[in-house]
Every structure is written in C-alpha cells, then in structure tokens.
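LAB NOTEBOOK - FOLDING QUEUE
OPERATOR: T.R.
BATCH SIZE: 2
PURPOSE: Compare the predicted structure-token outputs for two unrelated chains run back to back under identical settings.
PRIORITY: normal
REVIEWER: second-year student, initials M.K.

ITEM 1
FIELD SEQUENCE / FIELD STRUCTURE:
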Amino acid sequence: MNHLTCPDSSHSLATSTLVLPASAPLAENALVQPTGIAIPPADLPRATPPLAPILVADDDEDDVYFIQRMIKKSGVRNPVKVFDDGSEVVNYLGGARLDTAGGRERCPRLLFLDLKMAGLGGLGFLEWARQQKGISPLTIVVLSNAADPETVSRALALGAHRYLVKYPSQQTMTTIVRGVYPFTFA
C-alpha cells in the first residue's frame, strides 16, 4: 500500500492520509510515505506563489529569441510572456485574471517593448498605458532599433522608464531584470 499525504483543505494545519493500493498510479510530485507514517505539516514543502511574469512585446521572432535568452541569463525564474503587438498586451493587462490572490496570475512588473510592431505599436501602447491608473507598477523598457533623439524623447515622455537600442549588453539586461525582480533568482 502507498500512503499519499496532503494538506487537508478544511483545516490549515491538519493533514489527511489517503491509503492507495500499491498498483494505484501516483503523480510525480506526490508525497509518498512508504512506512505509513504521515508527514507532519511543518515538514511539508510549501507551495510557492506564482512568480510575476516578464512581458515581451515584439513581433520579430529573432528579437524575441535574443530577449528571452538575455532574460534567462539574468538568472531570474520568472516566466516570460510574449506578445506580437501592443494590443495583445493591452488585452492581457486589462484582464481580470491579474491578481495577487486567489490563485490567479501575479501582476507583471516589467515589460520589454518594441516600438515598431504590426497592429498597435510601442508608442501607441505607451499612449494607452499613460491613461491607465492601475498600470503604474509596470516598468516599461523600450527595446528598439530606432535611435533618433526625437523617438527616444517621445517614448520617455509617454512614460517609458528606459530606452535601449537593440541589443543592450547582458550586464544591462541583468541589472534591469534583477532591479525589478530582486528576489526571484534561480
């Protein structure tokens, strides 16, 4: 017989032991106690809250690949969500699923934004974001090939926190990512 021990949902500190036949399949992450002794609640691994995603809005597959690679090399464990244009980010940020409680996805705090995308471009997204009250904790970093002073000034005036010409150094990306997510290192 296998014993599967899990937190009892009706009591915060109690556990329930489920006795399964030896032939019963178990999930990979099941806590099996072959001796039949329940694992005390204090010894159970605690479920970690979901990490806030890092957003990338860029319609170029190669750029997305390099940005994701640089994020991964920065050492954080946060998931990366990729969008092809600014309207997808608007729809995502406007969704009711963004919450820090109730098992919902954590609110993102970092967006790497390209300016030239099909659909709603980066400047259009910045104009939208500027009008939103609940978006203020989102750090927006523009990553663009455009380096002319007028475009840079406009993006910063619309609320971008940083403007970087593709591709910044790994050290710059690591500093930005770890500055926004300082406690999620792998």
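ITEM 2
FIELD SEQUENCE / FIELD STRUCTURE:
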Amino acid sequence: METNPKTTIMVSIIGVALFIVAVFSASYAYYTANVTEKNSNTSSSDFDTAHLSIKFTDGAVLKVDKMVPGDKNQKEITVENEGNVPISFKINVKDVTNDFSKKADVVYTIKEKGGSSPIKSETQFPDSATTLSDKITLAAGVSKTYVIEIEYKNTSDDQTTDMGKTIKGKIFIEEVTK
C-alpha cells in the first residue's frame, strides 16, 4: 500500500503540534501549582496576601468642563489594603482629554486627605495616559483617602483661547511589585 506524501506531512505536523501543546500545558500546570509553605511542620499553612479596595467618591472618571482661570476641582479616591502585608501602588490616568493650547496652565496636585505635604505638587496635567503619582505604600489593614486637585492657573497671559475647555481622564490604581 502506497502512502500519499501530503498525508504523511500533515500527520507529522499535527503530531508535533499536539506534542508541543502537551508539554506547554504540563509545564504551565507545574509552575502555577507550586506553593511554598511558611512552616511545613504544622498541619496548616499561612499565606501573606495584599488586596486593594478602591472607592471613588463619584466614579473613576475625572472630568472638568468649561474651565476658567482660577478654577479648582477635586476628585477623591479611597484606597484600602484589605490584606495582611503592605502593598505599593501608583495612581494613573488613561483615556485623557486635554484640549488646552497652553497645557502648562492646567496643573494637578495629589494629597493624602488630612496630610500636610503633597504627594505630587502642581504638575502639568497630561494629554495622554500616564502615571500621576510616585509609588505609594499602604500598610496592611489601612485605608487612606487621596485628593487629586485640578487647577486652571490664572496667569498674566491672555487665556481667552482656552476658557471653557475640558479636562478628562479615567483614574485607576496600579499595583507596584518592585
């Protein structure tokens, strides 16, 4: 009986593909199932975890319409570490709209509510997705509220071209592992 060379090649390709999938699946299962116990001499295992809960006072979208020089608007974010180890994070923004021609006139400041010194002070509001804060570390079981203040600075320059413009972005929290 004579075999078709195309059939032999197809069967070989399928066999190699199945082998690769099997090896990858077994490797992935091995690495994801490896857990190290803190104390293997006891009948139970304890694991340290960190879990952030984020609450926005009025949603994740920061939007300020029809700004005029001197305007200040605030957005509050409450971050709670519900875990039993400290966790670090950064405050970020995406889906940004900043139609100001004089972008340096619009700044933001981030403060811990009730705190004395700002985390980030009078920094130009971005016109694209970016990180707004440096790394912030929150101890286990602690909840803190952060205030992002947007200010349209009143300068001595003619600002009429930017009056009535909009600042918008979606605020989110990103865990920092390093």
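REVIEWER COMMENT (ITEM 2): Helices lie at 5-33.
FOLLOW-UP: none requested
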